[in-house]
Amino acid sequence: xxxxxxxxxxxxxxxxxxxxxxxxxxxxxxxxxxxxxxxxxxxxxxxxxxxxxxxxxxxxxxxxxxxxxxxxxxxxxxxxxxxxxxxxxxxxxxxxxxxxxxxxxxxxxxxxxxxxxxxxxxxxxxxxxxxxxxxxxxxxxxxxxxxxxxxxxxxxxxxxxxxxxxxxxxxxxxxxxxxxxxx
Amino acid sequence: xxxxxxxxxxxxxxxxxxxxxxxxxxxxxxxxxxxxxxxxxxxxxxxxxxxxxxxxxxxxxxxxxxxxxxxxxxxxxxxxxxxxxxxxxxxxxxxxxxxxxxxxxxxxxxxxxxxxxxxxxxxxxxxxxxxxxxxxxxxxxxxxxxxxxxxxxxxxxxxxxxxxxxxxxxxxxxxxxxxxxxxxxxxxxxxxxxxxxxxxxxxxxxxxxxxxxxxxxxxxxxxxxxxxxxxxxxxxxxxxxxxxxxxxxxxxxxxxxxxxxxxxxxxxxxxxxxxxxxxxxxxxxxxxxxxxxxxxxxxxxxxxxxxxxxxxxxxxxxxxxxxxxxxxxxxxxxxxxxxxxxxxxxxxxxxxxxxxx
Lengths: 183, 357
Fold this sequence. Notes:
The complex is a heterodimer of chains A (183) and B (357). By secondary structure, chain A is an alpha+beta fold. Chain A has a single domain (17-174), classed as Jelly Rolls. In chain A, 34% of the residues lie in helices and 22% in strands. Chain A is globular, with a radius of gyration of 20 Å. Chain B is elongated. Chain B has nine helices and no strands. Chain B folds into two domains: 35-185, no CATH class; 187-357, no CATH class. By secondary structure, chain B is an all-alpha fold. In chain B, helix 3 crosses helix 7. Chain B has helices at residues 4-34, 38-61, 66-121, 132-184, 189-230, 236-246, 252-267, 277-304, 312-355.
């Protein structure tokens, strides 16, 4: 499991835009009125199969929530020997999953992976200018969303740290023990 | 790997979206430029919308619905403008009346001043070579006649602009975001994030720029008014309004704003009875200088520094180009338009060179 890209908050089912927003962990604290306001702030985008949502290295300004379809996440390894092995598959994201939320808090941060629609997909885009508008017009609502973003990023960081620790332990176990002096 | 059929569909949709988006932009620009008074109405509407938007957002933050939050500043602004005009108009009209009465005298005095300078320097030049007095008189006649032709058209156009612009501004504040979102929905997916971010940046910077320019104009106008009143200089209100309005034009504006007062001080030294003519001229120049100093030291670093900076030569070239295309309005909007163009170019350039690896 990849803790940065995998949805650790996943729930299933095909839903409408408002239902998807309501179910998302970032907007769970919002009232009905605030959700209606949010619906007017977000952007619904449709992607064809094979179309990239964003590419690794581009400047990202926001996150996407999958309403319908399937998104695959890849990392490009420039040092790979062949063209085929350059794309390292990370995970796939389905309905209600979200990705790219780090860009909401980064300043001109670059995308660390490539996201590609693998079938006809509908995504909800929620970007930094939208968050700024909410913070400017409805600060209480904006603060609740920002706190949830911080919580999600914190959880991802914690999961990743634990994973790195596990890998280090596993790596240590794999190393041969230091040779005893035969004297 | 993406199959050729999908790649073709994606490319075709991107092309159509881009064509639709550009067509909407071009058509809007054509309509704005083709209808008389529409450009000025839109520019003024943008200015009003940018000036009011922090107040509207503040009222919305206080819990008012967007419609009420938008309507209230227009209501209060209308009342303030009405009261202000009621108080200011008689004063301005009195001062303009006196100025119109004395204008032939100022013209004669100025012509006399020019001929005395000409006589003094003709010793060094061939007699009658400059003909400055004749040229000045011809220029005055030309200006006066062109003003008498342009004034009725200007007044009727201003009436349309003043009626339309608050109406447009109200709907920009009320529904501007929805309209922008609808327009952005035409942008192809691969350009969507940069377009959205660009719109946000331009909006932010233009808003800051316009609010800063109006704050500067108000401060300069107020300092000039206080200074001229203290000096008991005639037409203080008219001259202060003129200085404030011309201050909206960068670089050229502050000098233009000072010219009428300096000329009046030069040709009518008797206006400040207790001082000498040279001291009056010095004091009047000093007032305009102090107003600009306050602007440069306190206002510009605090409020204007954040806006996208253009080289002074670029600014002057843009002002001249603006004046050629759209007169005084062109001079005022050329710098924000150039700033927005620079921002757009920089963002697109970085996107094309850096963002896409």
